[in-house]
């Protein structure tokens, strides 16, 4: 949880605070002074004395300011490593209390002093160095250097440190070098992460572990799993393997505070915290089912953990072992032959090791060409999000470099001959999960038999060309099209289905489909009540539309006349901000928009891989599985409080055989991830009461909502939590992405899922939806889906949530209700619009 939400805000001491703490002396009494007129001379003397005192004081202040203040110095720490090529590693170097360690460390520190003396900038501010560790190859020394730098000079010291290699060269070439001095290579250094030497730490812990073949060690945060990790603590684990081995660190539990600024863990491919060797920074919660294994490039690894004063979580535990360099997972590349096959980056789906490079040579039968498709592609690195050069980690195919994170299956390359080479490279810092690729032999003359070949080499059905949908993923199936009468001709040459005109979403990409809507003139905006007002009226502080719509979403909150569009505070005042509830800012005078906000957050940190659309345990903690006793899963439901669930009314209608309307028919499973796998985190509840909406219409599915009261309340946990309930005015704008979840069928007419599934869909304009669904959509329904087909809720998902992210929380936008089949093209899923039932839910449940 980040501290914005904690209610415990950090308030830095401001100048104002200082002002209020200064005590001023009482002012002199002027009347008294007037009466006590003394002789003129005495007055003059006193005046001179006071003047001299003031001058002295001013001089003192100026001297202090220009002389001493200038000397305010900041501590700057640099970490680094260097290879000492004229020394041989001895076992005694592993322990810092041996005389051998101390002797070599002394030599290293004196040589560092000599190196820094080659730069005037560094020599001036250098305080000292300490050697933290040595490792094999020949001998690698890991050190920390401290500088005291005057404020304003930090950049110049950073610059001087960046020339460290040149300084080492200078030092090494120095003619009068003593014969026993160290010969250095591969010198790297970088500024230490300032959070690692924060003055607020009250405890420093250091552990060292040397793994052995055949044994599995373990590291964990102090107190794990029985108590939270300690506050204000800095911990480091220096991990070693035997020479020729690499370290494998396998997390089975990782649960830290969500905000990395407060508590975090960092893994380095080094024995000291060198930023250019950082492999990963972690915080928050990772599901135990997520593959979370890291490999070092050499035989050392460093794990650091820092906690601040508040909100300490259970912590982490990781298994530690060594694997021989060159064994499975540490290597990659090779010869691949045949018609088709697959290959992955090393250690996939876990993290690839840093400093790895390899090459695959693919050969398919003569006369054919090679087509490679990356089914998963995750090579991202902080700060490189928009990098085109791919100068860090990359994959190279056909002389083209690929990096970053790409949607599944969108990176595809085809060769001109029957061979192809694929290169994978990871640099020294930051690792990711890598890629999973497949290759196949294709006919060069006809790479997509009876299909359209996209620019990105994908093949799509001919009927999908120029149909308004981006089927290729790179839009190439929608270029150079002649639009039919059923399509809008966008100015940029694209064709889009006519029913997308004026739906509020810029489908053309150049707004053509959203121009001239609502009949308002240019320079005017269309109010939600269809009135036209001048563009200048938007956000001008006056309700020109009459329904407040020109003053909504203006980045601030103002009091407005109450309407269907405004948020009503508990004190009945209405404010203009859209969706102000639980957004972390108090907008209502009475604070009611930020009350009852322990909802809509999962402990889960987003993972991006493995298992397709399986959720991770605890990712949607409000999801409930409703079982008919003795039968199994039938419907979904959503937790809204410790006692109440929301589901669909059509789930609780009796039929000839089963009395679905009776509480005794059902049992509710909370915290469930895999059907049939009722572990310790799952809570089973019987029902006390079922309240179907009295206006539910079994023919039209209108008002398809019901409430279920549990026989006894549940205690919230990482796996069981409520979703946030939207205010009646909560806006779920069309085009927004929302989540559907459930154990329903994974295709129309198919089997139910074992593991809770998730998928992202978009909210669809109700008018468009009504046209697509033959006029069956009422204002109590909400449409969501992917109109290209393929993603949807299905049988067995009914009653479950349509979860809409807003800020860092999820709100219950809808309840899975009905649809025309499942995942069909142009047939969205239909959901019960929860905002329409907010009053009814409050009345029945108090939530
Ligand atoms: C069902 O039968 C069902 N495609 C739920 C949702 C949808 C279709 C069917 C939406 O429970």
Structure description:
It comes from Cyclopterus lumpus. Residues 609-846 form the Peptidase S1 domain. Keywords: Disulfide bond, Glycoprotein, Hydrolase, Membrane, Protease, Repeat, Serine protease, Signal, Signal-anchor, Transmembrane, Transmembrane helix. Residues 74-194 form the SEA domain. Exhibits trypsin-like activity as defined by cleavage of synthetic substrates with Arg or Lys as the P1 site. This protein is mainly beta and 847 residues long. It folds into five domains: 73-192, Alpha-Beta Plaits; 197-324, Spermadhesin, CUB domain (Jelly Rolls, Sandwich), CATH 2.60.120.290; 334-445, Spermadhesin, CUB domain (Jelly Rolls, Sandwich); 448-477, no CATH class; 623-845, Thrombin, subunit H (Beta Barrel). 12% of the residues lie in helices and 32% in strands. It is built from nine helices and 45 strands. A six-stranded antiparallel β-barrel has the order 34-35-36-39-38-37. The relative contact order is 0.06. The site of 4-(aminomethyl)benzoic acid has 11 residues, from strand 44.
Summarize the structure.
This protein is mainly β and 847 residues long. It contains 9 helices and 45 strands.
């Amino acid at each position: 949880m980040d501290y914005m939400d904690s209610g415990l805000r950090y308030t830095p001491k401001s100048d104002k605070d200082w002002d209020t703490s200064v005590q001023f002396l009482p002012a002199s009494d002027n009347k008294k002074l007037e009466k006590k007129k003394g002789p003129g001379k005495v007055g003059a003397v006193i005046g001179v004395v006071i003047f001299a005192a003031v001058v002295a004081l001013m001089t003192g202040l100026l001297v202090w300011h220009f002389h001493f203040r200038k000397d305010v110095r900041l501590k700057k720490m640099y970490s680094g490593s260097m290879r000492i090529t004229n020394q041989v590693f001895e076992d005694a170097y592993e322990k810092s209390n041996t005389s051998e360690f101390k002797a070599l460390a002394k030599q290293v520190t004196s040589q560092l002093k000599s190196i820094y003396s080659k730069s005037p900038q560094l020599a001036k501010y250098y305080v000292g160095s300490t050697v933290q560790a040595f490792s094999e190859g020949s001998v690698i020394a890991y050190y920390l250097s401290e500088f005291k730098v005057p404020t304003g000079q930090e950049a110049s010291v950073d610059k001087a440190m960046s020339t460290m290699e040149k300084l080492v060269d200078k030092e090494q070439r120095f003619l009068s070098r003593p014969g026993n001095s160290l010969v250095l290579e591969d010198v790297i250094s970088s500024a230490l992460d300032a959070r690692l030497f924060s003055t607020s730490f009250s405890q420093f812990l250091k552990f060292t572990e040397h793994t052995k073949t055949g044994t599995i060690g373990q590291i964990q945060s102090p107190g794990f799993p029985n108590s939270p990790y300690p506050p204000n603590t800095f911990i480091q684990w220096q991990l070693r393997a035997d020479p020729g081995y690499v370290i494998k660190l396998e997390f089975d539990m990782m649960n830290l505070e969500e905000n990395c600024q407060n508590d975090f863990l960092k893994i380095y491919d080094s024995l000291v915290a060198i930023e250019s060797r950082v492999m990963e920074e972690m915080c928050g919660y990772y599901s135990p089912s997520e593959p979370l294994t890291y490999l070092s490039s050499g035989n050392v690894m460093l794990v650091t953990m820092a906690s601040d004063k508040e909100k300490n979580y259970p912590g982490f535990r990781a298994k530690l072992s060594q694997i021989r360099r060159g064994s499975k997972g540490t290597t990659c590349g090779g010869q691949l032959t045949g018609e088709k096959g697959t290959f992955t980056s090393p250690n996939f789906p876990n993290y690839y090791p840093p400093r790895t490079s390899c090459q695959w040579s693919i050969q398919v039968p003569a006369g054919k060409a090679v087509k490679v498709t990356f089914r998963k592609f995750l090579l991202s690195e902080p700060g490189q999000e928009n990098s085109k050069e791919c100068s860090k980690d990359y994959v190279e195919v056909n002389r083209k470099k690929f990096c970053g994170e790409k949607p599944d299956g969108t990176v595809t390359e085809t060769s001109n001959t029957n061979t192809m080479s694929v290169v994978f490279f990871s640099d020294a810092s930051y690792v990711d999960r890598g890629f999973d690729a497949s290759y196949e032999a294709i006919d060069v003359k006809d790479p997509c038999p009876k299909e359209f070949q996209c620019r990105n080499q994908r093949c799509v059905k001919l009927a999908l060309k120029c149909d308004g949908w981006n089927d290729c993923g790179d839009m190439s199936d929608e270029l150079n099209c002649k639009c039919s009468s059923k399509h809008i001709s966008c100015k940029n040459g694209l064709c889009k289905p006519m029913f997308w005109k004026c739906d509020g979403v810029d489908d053309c990409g150049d707004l053509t489909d959203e121009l001239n809507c609502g009949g308002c003139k240019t320079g005017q905006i269309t109010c939600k009540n269809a009135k036209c007002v001048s563009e200048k009226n938007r956000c001008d502080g006056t309700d020109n539309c009459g329904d407040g719509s020109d003053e909504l979403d203006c980045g601030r909150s103002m009091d407005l006349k109450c309407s269907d569009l405004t948020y009503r505070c508990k004190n009945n005042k209405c404010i203009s901000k859209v969706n102000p509830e639980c957004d972390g800012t108090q907008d209502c005078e009475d604070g009611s928009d930020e009350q009852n906000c322990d909802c809509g957050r999962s402990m889960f940190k987003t993972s991006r891989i493995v298992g397709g659309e399986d959720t991770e345990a605890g990712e949607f903690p409000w999801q409930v599985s409703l079982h008919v006793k003795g039968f199994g899963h039938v419907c979904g439901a959503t937790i809204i409080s410790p006692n109440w669930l929301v589901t669909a009314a059509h789930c609780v209608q009796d039929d000839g055989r089963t009395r679905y309307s009776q509480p005794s028919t059902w049992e509710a499973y909370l915290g469930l991830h895999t059907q049939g796998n009722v572990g310790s985190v799952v809570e089973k509840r019987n029902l006390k009461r079922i309240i179907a909406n009295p206006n539910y219409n079994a023919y039209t599915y209108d008002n398809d909502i019901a409430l279920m009261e549990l026989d006894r309340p549940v205690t919230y946990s990482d796996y069981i939590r409520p979703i946030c309930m939207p205010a009646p005015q909560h806006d779920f704008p069309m085009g927004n992405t929302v989540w559907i979840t459930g154990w329903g069928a994974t295709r129309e007419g198919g089997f139910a899922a074992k593991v809770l599934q998730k998928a992202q869909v978009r909210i669809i304009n109700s008018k468009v939806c009504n046209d697509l669904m033959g006029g069956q959509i009422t204002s109590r329904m909400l449409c969501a889906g992917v109109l290209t087909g393929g993603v949807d809720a299905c049988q067995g998902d009914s009653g479950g949530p349509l979860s809409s992210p807003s800020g860092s929380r999820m709100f219950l936008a809808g309840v899975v209700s009905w649809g025309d089949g499942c995942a069909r093209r142009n047939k969205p899923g239909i959901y019960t619009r929860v905002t329409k039932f907010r009053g009814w839910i409050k009345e029945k449940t108090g939530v």
